[in-house]
Amino acid sequence: QGDEAQCKDIVEGISRLISLMKPQEASLCAQQLLGPIVNQLETFYMSSTQGNGNFNLAAGLELFASSIRYFEFSGSQSSHPTVIMLNKAWPFFERVMNSSE
After folding, report:
1. CA 7 to CA 66: how far, in whole Å?
2. What rounded mean pLDDT belongs to the chain?
3. How far is residue 81 CA from its own chain's centroid?
4. What is the pTM of this model?
């Protein structure tokens, strides 16, 4: 198994543990899990394209998806850990989408 697959397995394992928490606690842990993933994507994006040009997000999005795949919580949807993390990551995703136009 390659480094990417091992990283994905680790992220999924942590995600499964986070899914066992209460939503508020899970939100904090999700931020700790996803924050570095989004930061790494942004760093790689900037270094590979200087912020201008095409960028393949497939591997990064797959890791991001792996980290939220098991987040199933009851309660308010606006405070759902996945929604909170998507809101925080959205500016980066929007920059990437706008730069590929």
Report:
1. 10
2. 76
3. 11
4. 0.67
